[in-house]
Amino acid sequence: xxxxxxxxxxxxxxxxxxxxxxxxxxxxxxxxxxxxxxxxxxxxxxxxxxxxxxxxxxxxxxxxxxxxxxxxxxxxxxxxxxxxxxxxxxxxxxxxxxxxxxxxxxxxxxxxxxxxxxxxxxxxxxxxxxxxxxxxxxxxxxxxxxxxxxxxxxxxxxxxxxxxxxxxxxxxxxxxxxxxxxxxxxxxxxxxxxxxxxxxxxxxxxxxxxxxxxxxxxxxxxxxxxxxxxxxxxxxxxxxxxxxxxxxxx
Length: 250
Description:
With 250 residues, the chain is an alpha/beta fold. Helix content is 34%, strand content 19%. The chain has one domain: TIM Barrel (Alpha-Beta Barrel). The mean pLDDT is 94.
């Protein structure tokens, strides 16, 4: 059997179900995903919730700024019906609610969308959860955030994210060396790269040889899934887990 990377569902099975909601995460596992990725922000009353944008306009019928709204107000919104009537009355979940339904052995990638003010509440939620720490990976674009997380909790896995399209095309050995040096300096456990044709097999192998987890994200085309499976990337993050699994198994 060919190598198949772990498949992480981007905001759940978000091609079909409303992103960052319990139905999207449930569908992801039904489709065979090895884990799910969610985005977290802090509400005005200090609650850690799963939502990508700074406000609710794109996923609800009104615009509320998350950090300026309390949990009760945010959870009164319907963030499901924009994906279809079958998902009407879906609410913004707490991270703790997502953790409570995570199946044994499955992974949870948590992307931090807030500043350092979220660190203490986030770690409190993780500490109170019933899942094993090895199931969790915290992910962030901000190098300082990665460094701060590792300083607070060296035993937690933390991955640094890079949007290859906008800030790293990997066109030289020097740039790859800089990325590897940064990973070591901030004590990251892995790297998440946005899917891009500029990512070559040798780059992937160099990162893996440094004992880093290598995740490729925003990957929704079967040809890309097969490509990164052939590179033996550690995991891929996709909005349509079943389609990617079928492509790699086929």
